[in-house]
Design goal:
This protein has helices spanning 14-25, 40-43, 74-87, 172-183, 206-214, 261-266, 309-312, 315-326; strands at 4-10, 30-33, 92-93, 96-104, 107-114, 119-129, 150-151, 164-168, 187-191, 219-221, 224-229, 233-238, 243-247, 250-253, 292-294. With 327 residues, the protein is of the alpha/beta class. Strands 1, 2, 3, 4, 5, 6 and 15 form a seven-stranded mixed sheet that branches. The protein has a five-stranded parallel sheet with strand order 7-14-8-9-10, covered by helices on one side. A three-stranded antiparallel sheet has the order 11-12-13, with no helix packed on it. Helix 1 packs across helix 8 and helix 4 crosses helix 5.
């Protein structure tokens, strides 16, 4: 712990990068610590994914995002954010997970551990947590959830050709996965706890899925939950209490994700037990812990559909502006 950083940013996603760029522009000594690779969440998306927003709304650091289509692909986004990191010479430590954030405003201690389990402690005057949420799925807590046949993330459809696949969820990711699997020849069963599909499904996707359900190309169970997963079946229960076993080869449990509230709480941030929303000043994005700021979707708790790259990318200007006044 030989040097002290003015700002240490936890997370090298688009929002974390935007915070780092604004810090660099103001001449602050910066370090970004990332537990995976650059924009790790985007890297974890399905390989053939296309963004639902246009390229301009993904731009950070005043670097134009050029792509073949108006709505860029995952591969184009990865290339773009690599270019941004190169252009701004962002100091990033990869494969380094933050374990604890201690100390106080002006004298924080950030403890990390790398892939080889080597620990490091950094000193920082201010800390920004921009950890996102995609790494922590909402678990169902049912028998069989940890079987190899269960994934909490969407995968490419081709390997599931001719197989019986269950998709659990009613939101956009479940809708997209169901359609992709269907078009790659899987026998898809969609299982939704709610009485209907989520209103958050993109407007051009929902009719497609509704039509596939109507023509019975995709079988759908509404007001139904999965109670158990076995090697070759799943047990479902309807709202009326009726249970049945469905033949099954693979399960996509797309039940959503949540921020790392344990890290926040260990750092002293107050987090609502139900919504997972951390206490945060909406004008400065400073948490209840002086000098500790929150950026991006981590602010929204369980309501991850409130903050995206499109609006989280502006959090850096708010945070760095407030930090400059206090350093």
């Amino acid at each position: 712990m030989s040097e002290t950083y003015d700002v240490l940013v936890v997370g090298a996603g688009p929002t974390g990068l935007a915070c780092g760029i604004d810090a660099i522009r103001e001449g602050l000594k910066l370090l970004i610590v990332e537990k995976g690779c650059l924009v790790n969440s985007i890297f974890s998306y399905p390989a053939n994914m296309t963004f639902f927003t246009n390229r301009e709304r993904l731009e950070i650091g005043d670097i134009p995002f050029s792509s073949i289509n108006v709505k860029p692909t995952r591969a184009e986004a990865l290339e773009y954010y690599r270019r941004v990191a190169d252009y701004h010479h962002l100091p990033i430590h990869y494969d380094e997970k933050v374990l604890e954030i201690g100390g106080r405003d002006g004298a924080f201690r950030v403890e990390t551990e790398n892939r080889e389990r080597k620990r490091q402690t950094y000193a920082a005057r201010k800390v920004v947590i921009a950890t996102g949420y995609y790494d922590l799925p909402n678990r169902m807590g049912i028998p069989g959830e940890d079987l190899p046949k269960v994934s909490h993330y969407a995968l490419e459809g081709h390997p599931f050709y001719g197989r019986k696949v269950a998709v659990i969820g009613a939101a956009n990711s479940a809708a997209v996965a169901s359609l992709d699997l269907f078009r790659h020849g899987a026998q898809v069963t969609l299982i939704c706890r709610e009485p209907e599909l989520s209103r958050h499904i993109k407007y051009w996707i929902r009719p497609d899925l509704e039509n596939r359900i109507k023509e019975k190309s995709i079988r759908a169970f509404f007001e139904t939950v999965v109670k158990e997963i076995s090697e070759d079946w799943i047990l479902v229960e309807s709202a009326g209490g009726e249970r049945q076993k469905l033949e099954n080869d693979f399960v996509f449990a797309l039940t959503g994700y949540h921020p790392d509230i344990d890290l926040l709480r260990r750092a002293g941030v107050k987090v609502d037990a139900e919504s997972y929303r951390p206490q945060c000043n909406p004008k400065t994005l400073e948490s209840n812990v002086p000098g500790l700021y929150l950026a991006g979707v981590v602010i929204s708790g369980r309501h991850t559909n409130e903050i995206f790259i499109e609006n989280g990318r502006f959090h850096g200007k708010i945070i760095i502006s407030d930090i400059e006044k206090k350093l």
